[in-house]
Specification:
Layout lengths: L2 E9 L1 E3 L7 E4 L1 H9 L12 H5 L6 E9 L11 H10 L19 E9 L12 E2 L2 E2 L5 H26 L15 E8 L2 E9 L6 E3 L4 H14 L5 H9 L8 H11 L8 H12 L3 H22 L10 E4 L2 E4 L1 H24 L10 H10 L2
Parallel strand pairs: 2-10
Antiparallel strand pairs: 1-5, 1-8, 3-4, 4-5, 6-7, 8-9, 11-12
Helix pairs in contact: 1-5, 4-5, 5-10, 6-7, 6-10, 7-9, 7-10, 8-9, 9-10
């Protein structure tokens, strides 16, 4: 017997081949590395420092994320999501009042973050513990839930970061009238189960998963696990920019904040742009095109920051003498910032003396002369 904790959340991930077969990632070793590095000592967290600190690594049997990609074409099964959840989680008792997932469109995908613990959990409430005034939880159960969910949240943030860095997908800005922000946490042991709503939409930012390049995800997760306990502020800021499918032009600022976070405080915007050109371009034509995008992005950021004007996704702006939709700047900057973060991670992994994602003047000078 054991204890299984799950976080079940909607996602907007698409298989590059338009398949709906599950894609599973074993995160056991990565989670143990993260905890062994005492990630709770970081200046900020994604879960709960208390929950992370009090988790026994030896009690973790396995950890994984399974993704059921969104439905694109084929035979329509309107009960698809409900069936997948019941296959993975069993039938949830009605008294738990966890049924909102039945309203998710069959077009959407599904992500299940799962951790199995060696020890059992004996104090899970049953139907008789639920009254009109609320559930009567046994001693210690709430602490167990908080601890388990803290690990699930940390693991999901770690995973989604690796997925975004592997597949920086471009899409369109589409504000829905009823965006999906949903999900639930479940803990099961000794033939008893408890679940509570834990809504989230961080997996709703569109990602196109190229299954023939899943090795890229493993490479990025391996690198991230080694440094996840550092104060990776640019990554935290980057995650604000790709927080859901409800992104707007204001999230362009988050991308630029993430990019600026890779440099010293005194670094000028022009030096940041030049560093991007040196890092990402192989010829003058590419550099000219990239510079035009960066100039437009910083101009938009300055206009928004200083109250000059606001920008809508469908506004047209001039870039390189051509009128393009403003939202295209966001999507292009998303790719640029993703690549720069990867470059910074690579630098960090190669030098044990540094502890943050940061480019400095030495990097700038070295790149200039390496291009000569």
């Amino acid at each position: 017997m054991s204890t299984i904790s799950r976080w079940v959340i909607p996602c907007f991930f698409t298989d590059g081949n338009h398949k709906t077969s599950p894609i599973e990632f074993d995160l056991t070793d990565y989670l143990k590395i993260i905890l062994s590095n005492e990630v709770w000592n970081r200046k900020f967290n994604y879960g709960s420092s208390y929950g992370l600190k009090n988790t026994e690594i030896s009690n973790i049997k396995c950890a994984s994320v399974v993704i059921y990609p969104r439905f694109i074409s084929g035979y329509v099964d309107t009960e698809r999501i409900s069936m997948l959840i019941e296959e993975n989680c069993g039938k949830l008792p009605n008294y738990l009042r966890i049924g909102s997932y039945k309203e998710w469109s069959f077009h959407n995908g599904l992500a299940i973050v799962k951790i199995e613990y060696i020890n059992t959990t004996a104090n899970i409430p049953t139907k008789k513990d639920f009254t009109d005034f609320g559930p009567n939880f046994k001693e210690g159960f709430i602490d167990t839930c908080h601890q388990h969910f803290a690990i699930l949240k940390e693991l999901s943030t770690f995973f989604i970061t690796g997925l975004h860095l592997s597949f920086p997908t471009t899409s369109v800005m589409e504000t829905r009238s009823n965006p999906i922000v949903d999900g639930f946490f479940q803990i099961s042991s000794l033939n008893k189960t408890y679940a509570v709503k834990k809504a989230n939409d961080s997996f709703m930012h569109e990602i196109l998963i190229e299954t023939n390049k899943l090795s890229n995800v493993e490479t990025n997760l391996k690198g991230l696990a080694a440094i996840w306990h550092y104060n990776l502020w640019p990554i935290k800021r980057y995650l604000f920019a790709v927080k859901s499918d409800q992104v707007t032009m204001d999230n362009l600022n988050d991308l630029i904040f993430a990019l600026e976070g890779l440099f010293e405080k005194s670094t000028s915007s022009e030096q940041i742009k030049t560093m991007c050109l040196l890092q990402l371009c192989s010829n003058a034509k590419e550099a000219k095109s990239l510079k035009e995008i960066l100039d437009a992005a910083f101009r938009i950021r300055n206009d928004i920051a200083h109250g000059e004007r606001s920008y809508e996704s469908h506004d047209y702006i001039k870039v390189g003498g051509k009128e393009i939709l403003a939202e295209k700047i966001y999507w292009k900057m998303k790719t640029i910032v993703t690549l720069m973060i990867i470059k910074a991670i690579d630098k960090l992994l190669k030098n044990e003396q540094i502890k943050n994602l940061r480019f400095n003047n030495d990097d700038f000078i070295e790149l200039i002369f390496s291009k000569r």
